[in-house]
Amino acid sequence: MEGYEVQTIDDEKVGKVVGVTDDYLIVEHGMLFKSRHAVPRQFAHVDEGESTVRLSVPKNIVEDSPKLGEGDSIDRQAVAEHYGLAEGYAAPDAEGDGIVDPGDPAISSEVEAARAGIETAPEERVRIRESIQPGHQTSGVDSPALLGNRAPEGERPNEP
Question: Cβ neighbours of residue 68 under 8 Å, at least 6 residues apart?
Fold first, then answer.
């Protein structure tokens, strides 16, 4: 895999693979001022036919990741934390009641949605409950979703 070109999900060339250590690819980036970054293998998909490694993350994530230290030493915790993997956290949000492998996501989908400004499922339920008018019937014959009564009374077809 050494020497393979590395492309990101946004079809940007980010460098070349210069080594493989444990569960990480060592990617060299830059022309004049070269830097090396560790990329977790779970984000890499190898295309042997094209001698290319395709990453499932965008270029800026790789470029902003921690650079390798002296002798290409990897700060595993810093890299895992940067990529949002459980190995980077003492008690990851996604742990729940089960066992978390080092390559599992560390952040729950609800926390990730909140960070991205997306309404979470519990927030959506609260918003819907609060928007229902007092005295509104949510079941029975007045339910437009069940019976198709979408027009106000007196304007419904087949009514006198």
Answer: 26, 35, 36, 37, 38, 74
Q: What is the pLDDT of residues 94-127, one digit of tens each?
A: 555 555 555 556 566 666 666 677 777 778 888 8
Structural domains present in the chain = 5-71 (2.30.30.240), 84-131 (no CATH)
Total-model pTM: 0.57
- How far is 107 from 105, CA to CA, in rounded Å? 6
Question: In a 3-state reduction of DSSP, which class is residue 5?
Answer: strand
Q: How far apart are CA 35 and CA 10, in angstroms?
A: 20
Output the DSSP codes for 91-108: S-GGGTTS---TTSBSS-
> Using CA atoms, how far apart are residues 56 and 18, in angstroms rounded to an integer?
19
- CA 110 to mean position of chain CA atoms: 11
